[in-house]
Amino acid sequence: MSKGLFITIEGGEGAGKTTLIETLAEYGAASGRTVVTTREPGGIPIAEQIRQVILDPKHTAMDARTEALLYAAARRQHLVEKVMPALNRGEIVICDRFIDSSLAYQGHARGLGIEEVWEINRFAIAGMMPDLTIYMDVRPEIGLERISRGDNREVNRLDLESLAFHNRVREGYNLLLQRYPERIALVDAEQTPEAVAAQVIALVEARWGGFLASRVK
């Protein structure tokens, strides 16, 4: 069992995950712990190369199952090369997306089935699940409008999907909230970044008031 803390941040396009991760990393570091921030797909060279294939806007012909398998492959390499070693060192890992993205996007929105995509990823993660997942809920039309305003964020293949697709992604996340209420916490991402950060920090304190301190060795 790892000594570290694994927090994942989920949400649709334009939810503001990057801003929250930066704030949460500062908060975690204040506990005296080493904080590692990373992302999926990516975080390490092999997974970053897979990311380029998956998210390239030119790859519109990509089959949904191919997409799901590529995400799982990137996830496995990222886990064994970066996430698990950091957790074993007792560090806090904050990851932009993890398995819930595959379940919501490929499982529900692509229509492959949440159970079917879970089985692919169960093999990939070998039991490694987050201690806490923050789901940043935003209406797709608002998230996509944020992206269209431009803030140096990459525009990828998923951003170009229809509004109906992004609504199905949100439906998928809501199904996961019902399935994993003990792990996934809902945060209203339509608030200001400051309000979102305050809500998440309060949530972490409520759940783990002595947790961070108890893991400091």
Structure description:
The protein is an alpha/beta fold and 217 residues long. It is built from nine helices and five strands; from the N terminus they run E-H-E-H-H-E-H-H-E-H-H-E-H-H. The protein has helices at 17-29, 45-55, 64-88, 99-109, 114-125, 140-149, 163-179, 193-207, 211-214; strands at 5-11, 35-39, 92-96, 132-137, 184-188. Helix 2 packs antiparallel against helix 3 and helix 3 (64-88) runs antiparallel to helix 4. It starts with a strand and ends with a helix.
Shape: globular
CA-based gyration radius: 16 Å
- Helicity range: 40-55%
What's the end-to-end separation, in Å? 15 Å
Beta-strand percent range: 5-15%
Overall pLDDT metric: 91
Let me know the number of strands. 5
Class inferred from helices and paired strands: alpha/beta
User: Numbering strands along the chain, what is their spatial order in the largest sheet?
Assistant: 2-3-1-4-5
Order of helices and strands: EHEHHEHHEHHEHH
Describe this protein with a few key phrases:
alpha/beta; globular; disordered C terminus; 217 residues; 9 helices; five-stranded parallel sheet; 5 strands
